Amino acid sequence: MLDTNTNEAVPDNAQEGAGRERTGLREELLQTAVDLFATRGFKGTSIRDIAKTLGVSVSVIYHYFGNKEGLWSAILDYSVKGLPARLEAALGGGGHALERFRRVLRAHLAASALYQKESKIFLIDYDRMSAAGDQTSKAIQKRVLDAYVGILEELRTEGLVKSAQTKILAFNVLGVVNWYLRWYRPDGPLAPDEVYEEIVAFVLYGVIGTPPGQS
Amino acid sequence: MLDTNTNEAVPDNAQEGAGRERTGLREELLQTAVDLFATRGFKGTSIRDIAKTLGVSVSVIYHYFGNKEGLWSAILDYSVKGLPARLEAALGGGGHALERFRRVLRAHLAASALYQKESKIFLIDYDRMSAAGDQTSKAIQKRVLDAYVGILEELRTEGLVKSAQTKILAFNVLGVVNWYLRWYRPDGPLAPDEVYEEIVAFVLYGVIGTPPGQS
DNA sequence: TAATCTATCGAACGATCGTTCTGGTACGCA
DNA sequence: TGCGTACCAGAACGATCGTTCGATAGATTA
């Protein structure tokens, strides 16, 4: 009676044997988890929700990721974890400071668009995770901030940036970019590049400004 | 043994009888809930957490607010719900468009500072609530956005704003302001007004910009 | 004084949470 | 052919969740 039960329980992938590895189940789990986390939040999404959406057992998640934190960690690994390196890469290379600043900004926007949901979860839940993930997440946030502060300091020594509060400026830039991944819809009326240019222009003028004294 | 138990169980407000209303328990509950929601999130905070922090029973929360959603709704009532009206009030009144824009911005920043934690919870969890609260929250978000789009359109007809994408500009402004309440610490080195002016300058220059053609 | 109301407690209920355990099937390799 | 390992289902466990339910003590009212 056990084997008949096993055969009947297979929902729709009956063409494969029960013990056969499903094509990319791990990736399916990651994608499903990202979708649910992004809409309901990390705490608001249960392991069972994810498993049920894919029609698999909850054990699969523990098999692949150990526990719920491990699942979130795996999501971080392929997405947000690479962001600081991208920005620092864009920060290096040639060109004068303003050009490099523009390059960092564009790289940041591109990464945010590529991993939109993952970044959204990261920004919303990063300070509400338990100790382990929090450590990593805080470090990522800091490297990103430092990248912006660094280039803004450069721009300041060149006289392009007037304000001495480069950290506040960096926060403002982060606000614009991080808000972008909350309102941007890929199926919107504007092409991604048009949106990019609009945001880049806003940030550039905001950062550089013109000397005060004009009311 | 019941009455002795009652007397012993009172932690520090023993001068009042057990059935006497505690001084502002409702406000204490709201404040505690805000603190916990802001650090652990709505889903991450249990009714018991709030009650335990104040050393009271869970029933008092249900007595005052009905249920967990009601508690959140009460928080919204005294804080974020008034934001659209504040902005619209600042939008009215005299002065030319640029001055009114500056006034809206400052009102927005002041409100964000006044209800920092409440706004933070609102912005993080507003699209993860159940139906009732979601309706209200979405309406608030929309009115705030519309206020900014409206004044930006005005600025555009006056030629001060060059870009036709006023909605994206409004999103950018919202990003800066909403991010501000995530990084701002009242005990920081700068006075609130200094921070305000820094942010206002950034947004103003970002919105107005200078005509393109300069690399 | 008697009855009602308000504020609060502590226990309890059913649901759901993350996680573990047991077991069974199929593939790779000897 | 036999065996170890990877993969997966389903039941179960203890903890915790939001919520409900009497009971009680003081305040208010008639």
CATH level-four homologous superfamily name of the largest domain in chain A: Tetracycline Repressor, domain 2
Percent of residues of chain A in helical segments?
Answer: 55-70%
Kindly report the average pLDDT value of chain A. Answer: 87
Q: Judging by the overall fold, what is the CATH architecture of the largest domain in chain A?
A: Orthogonal Bundle
Q: Strand portion of chain A, in percent?
A: under 5%
Number of helices of chain A: 11
Q: Taking Cα atoms only, what radius of gyration of chain A do you get, to the nearest Å? A: 22 Å
Number of separate domains of chain A: 2
Describe this structure in words.
The structure is a homodimer of 215-residue chains. Chain A has helices at residues 2-9, 25-40, 47-54, 59-65, 68-78, 83-91, 97-114, 116-125, 131-157, 166-183, 192-208. Chain A is mainly α and 215 residues long. Chain A has 2 domains: 20-77, Homeodomain-like (Arc Repressor Mutant, subunit A), CATH 1.10.10; 79-208, Tetracycline Repressor, domain 2 (Orthogonal Bundle), CATH 1.10.357. Chain A is elongated, with a radius of gyration of 22 Å. Chain A starts with a helix and ends in a 7-residue tail after the last helix. The relative contact order of chain A is 0.10. The model of chain A is unreliable at 1-21 and 211-215 (pLDDT under 50). The interface between A and B is large, with 38 and 38 residues. Chain A binds a DNA duplex (30 and 30 nucleotides) through residues 2-3, 5-6, 9-10, 17-22, 25, 46-48, 56-60, 62-64, 67-68.
How would you briefly describe this protein structure?
Chain A is mostly helical.
